[in-house]
Amino acid sequence: MIMNEESVLKFNNVNFAYEADRTILENINFEIPRGDFACIVGPNGGGKTTILKLILGLIRPVNGSVEVFGKKPDEIREKVGYVPQFSKFDSGFPVSVLDVVLMGCLSKNFWWGRYSKKQRAMALTALDSVGLGGFEHSGFADLSGGQRQRAMIARAIMGEPELLLLDEPTASVDVKGTEQLYNMFAEMNKKFTIIIVSHDIGFVSAHVKTVVCVRKTLQIHPVSELTGESLQKLYGPEVNIVRHDHRCSEKGHVCHHS
Amino acid sequence: MSSFLTDLLELPFLFNAVLAGILCSIAGGIVGTFVVLRRITYIAAAISHCILGGLGAARYFSVVYGLEWIRPIYGAILTAILSAVIIGIISLRAKEREDTVISALWAIGMASGVLFIFKTPGYGEDLMSYLFGNILMVSSQDLWFIGILDIVLVTITAIFYRQIVAVCFDEEFARTRGLSVEFYYLLVLCMTALTVVLMVSAVGIIMVIAMLTLPVAVGCKFFNRVSKIMLSAIILGIAFNVFGLMASYEPNLPSGAVTIIIAGLTYFATVLFFMFKKTKIKTKLN
C-alpha cells in the first residue's frame, strides 16, 4: 500500500461481533487507495459481507473506526454506490427498468413523489453505460439474470458515486456474462474506485488489482502474490485451485500477516 | 336487479352502502397493493383480528359505564394502530419466530373481544356484524369518516410513493440511500390498520384480508407496474362491492360474503385463464 496516495477507505483496528462471544472480524486494518479495483474474498461466514455492511454504514464496528473519504460511512452516502446480491429479489416485482434505476437517486432529502427531468436524464445515461440503452420501459421482471444485474449497477452509478461496492455481482450469471461484466468493471474503474465481494477467486484474480482475503482476520495481496499457499491458508487444504493467467500488478505491497 | 336500482335512489341506506363500498375500495386498492408487494398479508390479517378486542372494549365501556360518546369505531382505530405498531416493532426486532408472536397477538386480540362482548348486556348479534360486516348499516357519519381517511391515505401515498415502493423492492438498498426503512415499514402498517378498520364495516373482520388482497392479486395478473396495479385494484374493488350488493340484495343474502365469493371466483377465473393461455402458447411452440 502506498501511503501517500489518497485513500477512499480506511479501517482502523476494527472489531465486529453480532453476539458477544462470536467474533466475526478481528483487528481489521486496511486502506483502499483511490482508483483501486479490489476484491474481497474468503469462505462463507468469513466476514466478507460484514465488511461491506460496515463500509455502507448499515452496521457499526464494536471497536475501531471505518472512514469513507475521511468521514463516517453514514455521512457520505451520496459518494458510495451499492449493488446488492440480486438473487434475493422478488423477480416478479412490478416495476420498469427505469423505475429501478431511479431508486438510485432517492435520499433522506427526497421529498414529494416526483423525479426531476435531470434525474431521469442521469438514469438514462447510466442505463446506456451498462449497455441497457433502450430497455428503460421494459419490465424489470422480463430481463434476463445478466441484464437485471446490469440494471442494478446502473441504479448504483446513476448518482455518480466515487466508490462502487458490489456484492457477488457474478453469482447466477453465466461465464460469458461474467467476462462481459468484468470488462465493464475495468472500463468503470477509470472513473470509480471499485470493491467487489466474490467467492470466485480464480476468475477475479485475472481482472482486479488488489485481493483482500478475509477470514476473521484480514490479509491484503496484490494479485501477483496470490499463490496456492495463501489461498490454502484462507480456505483450508481441501480447496481445488484452477490456475488462470495471472496479471501482475506493478504496485509494491505490504502484507499484514497476523 | 331492477328493484336494486329503483331502491338505490329511494332508500338512503342502500345509497350509503354503495358509497361506502366505493370509498373502501379506494383505500383498499392503494394499501392492498403495498401489503401484497411487501408480503405482509399475514400481518394485515393479524391486525384485523385484533380489532375485535377494540370493538368489544369500546362497546363494553359505552354500555356498562354509560359513556355514550365512545363509539365502537374509536376502539377499532385505537387497537388497530396499537397492534400495527406492536407487531411492526416485533417483526423488525425479532427476525426469527416472528410468526409465532404475531399469531399469539392475533388470538389474544380476538379472545379479549369475545370476553368484552360476552360481558356487555344486549344482543349477541353485534358479534356477528363485527365478524362478517354489514355494509347496509353504514351511517352517513361513518361515510364522512371513511371519506376523510381516504383523503389522508391518498395524501400520504402521494408524498411517499417512491420511497415506499423502493423499500418494498429492496430494503437494504433503500437503507444505503439513507431512507429510514423502519419508518416506512411502520407507516405502511399504520395505513394498513386504518384501511382494515374501514373495511371491517363492509365485509367484517374475517373477510377483510380477502378484500385487501384479491383485487390486487387480479390486477397483478394483468399489469406489471405498481401504479397500474393500484388503479386496477381500486376499480376491481368497486366492481366487487357493487356487484356483491346487487347480487345479495333481492335474495336477502349477507352482502359481505357474496362480495367475497365474487372476488374469489374472479381471482381463480383469472388464474385459470392465464394458465390456459400459457399452455396454449406452449403447444403452439411444440
Features:
heterodimer, A: 258 residues, alpha/beta, six-stranded mixed beta sheet, three-stranded antiparallel beta sheet, 7 helices, 24% strand, globular, B: 286 residues, mainly alpha, ABC transporter involved in vitamin B12 uptake, BtuC, 11 helices
Order of helices and strands of chain B: HHHHHHHHHHH
Question: N-to-C SSE series of chain A?
Answer: EEEHEEHHHEHEHEEH
Radius of gyration of chain A: 18 Å
* Global shape of chain B: globular
How many whole angstroms does the radius of gyration of chain B measure? Answer: 20 Å
Annotation, overall tally of beta strands of chain B: 0
Report the CATH topology name of chain B: ABC transporter involved in vitamin B12 uptake, BtuC
Major β-sheet profile of chain A? 6 strands, mixed
Can you describe this structure?
The complex is a heterodimer of chains A (258) and B (286). In chain A, a hairpin with a 1-residue loop joins β8 and β9. Chain A has 258 residues and is α/β, with parallel strands linked by helices. Chain A has helices spanning 48-56, 97-102, 117-129, 145-157, 175-188, 201-205, 228-235; strands spanning 7-19, 22-33, 37-41, 63-68, 80-83, 163-167, 193-197, 210-215, 217-222. Chain A has a domain at 91-161. The longest helix of chain B is centred in the C-terminal third of the chain and has 42 residues, at 181-222. Chain B has 11 helices and no strands. Chain B has 286 residues and is mainly α. Chain B has one domain (2-280): ABC transporter involved in vitamin B12 uptake, BtuC, CATH 1.10.3470.10. The model of chain B has no long low-confidence stretch (mean pLDDT 89). At the A-B interface, α2 of A face α7, α8 and α10 of B.
How is the topology of this model organized?
The complex is a heterodimer of chains A (258) and B (286).
Chain A (H helix, E strand, L loop, with lengths): L6 E13 L2 E12 L3 E5 L6 H9 L6 E6 L11 E4 L13 H6 L14 H13 L15 H13 L5 E5 L7 H14 L4 E5 L3 H5 L4 E6 L1 E6 L5 H8 L23
Parallel strand pairs in A: 3-7, 3-8, 5-6, 6-7
Antiparallel strand pairs in A: 1-2, 1-4, 8-9
Helix pairs in contact in A: 3-4
Chain B lengths: L1 H9 L1 H26 L3 H24 L7 H22 L4 H22 L5 H8 L7 H30 L1 H6 L4 H42 L3 H24 L5 H31 L1
